[in-house]
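Example 3.2
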Amino acid sequence: MVIPIRDDNPATRKPVLTIAIIAACIYIYGFVQPHRADHEVEFLAQHAAIPCEVVHAKPISNELSQECDGQLHIPGEPATSPAEPFPQKNVFLAIVVSMFLHGSWIHVLGNMLFLWIFGNNIEERLGPVGYAVFFLASGVVAAATHIATQTNSTVPVVGASGAIAGIMGAYLVLYPKARVLTIIPLFIFLQFVYLPAFVVLIGWFVLQFLTNPNAGVAVAAHIGGFIFGAAVGLFLRGTAKPEPYVPPGPPPPDWGFGGRRY
C-alpha cells in the first residue's frame, strides 16, 4: 500500500474550485453533520442517497423498508428502527448532496488529500465550469454504479470518493508519467519514494478489487467513477490543449531597410 503526498506536476493557475470543494467538505463534516449515532442516522436518512430510495424513486418508509433489506442503518452502527420518513426528500438530489457528506474525519481528510493532489491539474485542463460538471458527473456515475450493485440496500452512501475516483482516472490518462511522492510503510519505518502516477493510480484501482465487500466501502462506486474519468481523459487527450497567450514583444529593428527582410 502506498500513500500519495504530492505530485511534481504544478498547475499554472490557482485551483480555486478544488480548494472550494475541500473547504466545503471539511466544513460540512465538522459543523453541519451531527456526530452522535442516533442523530447521524436521522440526518443521513433525510439528506444522503439511499440505494433503495433511488431505485424506487421515493423516500424511505416503513412500507418501503419491507421491499428492501429492512431497517435503515449505517455501517459500524447498531441496527435501529427505521427513522421517521421524510416525504419531501428529493432522492435524486440526495445523490449530489451525498458527495459532500462523509463518515469520519479519516474518511473526509483522506478523500481531500487525493483531491488536492490530483484535482488541480484536471481543473486547469477543463476550466472551472468544465471541472465542476466533470466532478458532479463522476460522482453521479459512481453512485449509479454502486446503486446498480446494491438495489435493495438501505445503507446511506456518503463521500466524495466516487467523484475523486473520476478525477484520478482522468489524471491517469492525461499525466501518466507525472512523478508522485508517496509514503510506503515498511513495518515501523516510512519510506518516501517518487513513483510514476500510473503506478500509484493503477495500484489504487487494482486494490479496489481486493477490498473486502463487507468493509463498508463503496468499491463499485470507486470502480465506476475511475472508469468514467479515464474515458473522459481519453477524450480530452484527443483534443489539443490551447496554447497559453504570449503578448507580442517589440518589433525588430529594420536596420535602415524599411522593415524589409532579405
